[in-house]
Design brief:
single chain, alpha+beta, 4-stranded mixed β-sheet, 3 helices, 4 strands, 45% helix
């Protein structure tokens, strides 16, 4: 009986150690992740392509070709008639009406 319980105790310790390791790795990944920018601009295809849409940082509808921008750049882009995302509504977040 002692051997059987010792075997199960060893397996339980291994599972606990693996779970703790996964948690440490998850925490390290979150600490190393770049912070989400406040504003992003989605870029068109090709070198030197014009931006096509302004998004709030972290918008689920933003494409892969994107660049972080400042609040002033977002305001300027919207004033330059670059489209505002219909999902995250950066124009509303920035206080632009109409």
């Amino acid at each position: 009986m002692r051997t059987w319980y010792a075997m199960w105790l060893a397996r339980i310790d291994e599972v606990i150690a693996a779970a703790e390791q996964r948690e440490r790795e998850k925490q390290q990944g979150e600490e190393r992740r770049k912070p989400t920018p406040d504003w992003i601009v989605e870029l068109g295809i090709g070198v030197g392509a014009r931006p096509i849409e302004v998004h709030v940082g972290g918008c689920h509808a933003a494409g892969k070709r994107q660049r972080a921008i400042s609040r002033e750049q977002a305001l300027a882009a919207l004033a330059d008639e670059i489209r505002a995302c219909i999902h995250c509504r950066p124009d509303t977040e920035l206080g632009i009406l109409g």
